[in-house]
From TrEMBL:
Keywords: Ribonucleoprotein, Ribosomal protein, RNA-binding, rRNA-binding
Protein species of origin: Candidatus Chloroploca mongolica
Annotated Basic residues bias: 177-187
NCBIfam families associated with the record: L6_bact
Top-level taxon: Bacteria
GO cellular component: ribosome
Protein known as: Large ribosomal subunit protein uL6
Length: 187
C-alpha cells in the first residue's frame, strides 16, 4: 500500500474543504480558494478534521493515483494556508529586474526589455542587490504550487544560466557547473 497515500491530511483551523460529485475538491483558506478536479475513482473521506484518500482496488492505475491524489490535496491545503514560493537569482552585468505595478520588467542582455504579467493569484517580489557582484533575488509567490513552479520555469527559460561565466536566470538552490573555456588551449 502507498505510504504517502495512507497518511491523512490534517486540516488546520480556518480551512474549509468541500468535496463535490466526481471528486471536485474545493479548499478555502486565509490566502484564497483552490479548486481541482481529481480522479473520480479515488475515495476521499473527511472526518475529525482530517482527509483520507482510499483506493477502490489494487490495480496499477489505482495504486499510482492513491499517493498522487493525497499529495495534490495536501499541496492545496498548504497553498491556502501558507502559500508557495520559488526563489530565482539573476546573475550578469546589466541584468536587472524591476516591478512596474504588478508587471515584472527584466533586462537580460537582449535588445529589448522583457515584460511578464503575473498569472492570477501569483505575485513577484524583487530583492535588492547589495553589491555589483552579488546576484539579484527574485521570488515568485502564489497559492497554487503548480502555477508558481511553471511561472518560475518560464522566467528561467528566458535566459538560462550558461556554464562559462554563469550569467543568466537560475533557481536559488541550483548549482551551475562551470567550464574552463579557451584559456587552457596550448599554442
Amino acid at each position: 500500500m502507498s505510504r504517502i497515500g495512507k497518511k491523512p491530511v490534517t486540516l488546520p483551523k480556518g480551512v474549509d474543504v468541500q468535496i463535490a460529485e466526481g471528486n471536485l475538491v474545493t479548499v478555502k483558506g486565509s490566502k484564497g480558494t483552490l479548486t481541482q478536479q481529481l480522479h473520480p475513482d479515488m475515495i476521499i473521506v473527511q472526518e475529525n478534521g482530517e482527509l483520507t484518500v482510499q483506493r477502490p482496488s489494487d490495480t496499477k492505475l489505482h495504486k499510482s493515483l492513491h499517493g498522487l491524489t493525497r499529495t495534490l490535496i495536501a499541496n492545496m491545503v498548504v497553498g491556502v494556508t501558507d502559500g508557495w514560493q520559488r526563489a530565482l537569482e539573476i546573475n550578469g552585468v546589466g541584468y536587472r529586474a524591476v516591478l512596474e505595478g504588478q508587471t515584472l520588467v527584466l533586462s537580460l542582455g537582449f535588445s529589448h526589455q522583457v515584460r511578464r504579467e503575473p498569472p492570477p493569484n501569483v505575485q513577484y517580489v524583487v530583492g535588492e542587490r547589495k553589491s555589483a557582484n552579488e546576484p539579484l533575488g527574485l521570488i515568485v509567490r502564489g497559492i497554487d504550487k503548480q502555477v508558481v513552479g511553471e511561472e518560475a520555469s518560464r522566467i528561467r527559460a528566458l535566459r538560462p544560466p550558461e556554464p562559462y561565466k554563469g550569467k543568466g536566470v537560475k533557481y536559488a538552490e541550483e548549482k551551475v557547473r562551470r567550464k574552463a573555456g579557451k584559456a587552457g588551449k596550448a599554442r
